[in-house]
Write a structure and sequence with these properties.
The protein contains six helices and five strands; from the N terminus they run αβββββααααα. It has 163 residues and is an alpha+beta fold. The chain is extended, with a radius of gyration of 35 Å.
């Protein structure tokens, strides 16, 4: 046989070997993570529930899902063991990272323009309000509608027509 005819089979077998090896490594890492669980650590189940480990047994684990609420789960259902900071951030909403950084974000973009207070007074104000002529036309339309409604047809806004 020629080596060129065997080359696709060799590549295919090599790829299968590499894929199974990486899958076995992931399974071993997950098993190691589950075996390292200790009471008091925070975990996330494969269903996305966050809980605290109370007891660890051979194949099961007792989780406290809420204060005073305990549930027994299989060890294989634990998706991740979380460190204390991440667990507290997710479950209790503790934002230590924001407090430690101390960065203040302004409410407006004035600090980005670099203008001082004196320069701001020199800048012409732009009126973003309604145009007075359009406002007057809207008032006339509303007055005409009120007159039309008050002609005595006996119905108000939102009432069905009388038959």
């Amino acid at each position: 046989m020629d080596i060129l005819t065997l080359l696709p089979f060799i590549v295919l077998i090599g790829a299968m070997f590499l894929m199974t090896r990486s899958a076995k490594k992931k399974q071993a890492a997950a098993a190691q993570m589950r075996s390292d669980m200790q009471p008091g650590t925070g975990v996330r189940t494969i269903g996305g529930m966050y809980a605290t480990v109370k007891e660890v047994h051979d194949d099961t684990v007792l989780l406290e899902v809420a204060p005073g609420v305990h549930a027994i789960y299989a060890k294989n259902s634990i998706g991740a063991v979380l460190d204390d900071a991440e667990y507290n951030r997710i479950v209790h909403g503790d934002d230590e990272e924001l407090d430690a950084d101390g960065t203040v974000v302004p409410d407006d973009a004035s600090s980005l323009t670099g203008e001082s207070g004196a320069d701001k007074a020199d800048v012409a104000k732009i009126d973003l309000g309604k145009d007075q002529t359009a406002d007057d036309a809207g008032t006339e339309d509303a007055a005409a509608k009120d007159v039309k409604d008050s002609k005595g047809d006996g119905k108000a806004d939102g009432e069905p027509e009388a038959k």
